[in-house]
Write a structure and sequence with these properties.
Elements (H helix, E strand, L loop, with lengths): L1 H10 L2 H7 L4 H10 L4 H10 L6 H4 L1 H4 L8 H5 L1
Helix pairs in contact: 1-2, 2-3
């Protein structure tokens, strides 16, 4: 659960992450114990961490790997 730990750290703690997505601290703590974030909360965490932790980081089994950076703009320059 490196991605969840990163989200917790980025948010400033379990309680702050939980509060920022409208949940109680024990809910996020239970995710750590279970080793999995429910898919319906991944996008909320992505927004709460300003994209530092993405839905792809949290649940690649559902959202797939992170998309590659778009290099088309760099090639046009």
């Amino acid at each position: 659960m490196d991605a969840l730990n990163k989200a917790i750290s980025t948010a400033g703690g379990v309680g702050k992450l939980a509060g920022s997505i409208g949940l109680k601290q024990n809910v996020v703590g239970n995710w750590k114990l279970r080793g999995k974030v429910p898919a319906q909360h991944c996008i909320q965490i992505e927004f709460a961490t300003n994209g530092a932790v993405t839905r792809h980081d949290l649940r690649p089994d559902i959202f797939g790997p992170a998309p590659a950076a778009n290099d088309d703009a760099a090639e046009a320059a």
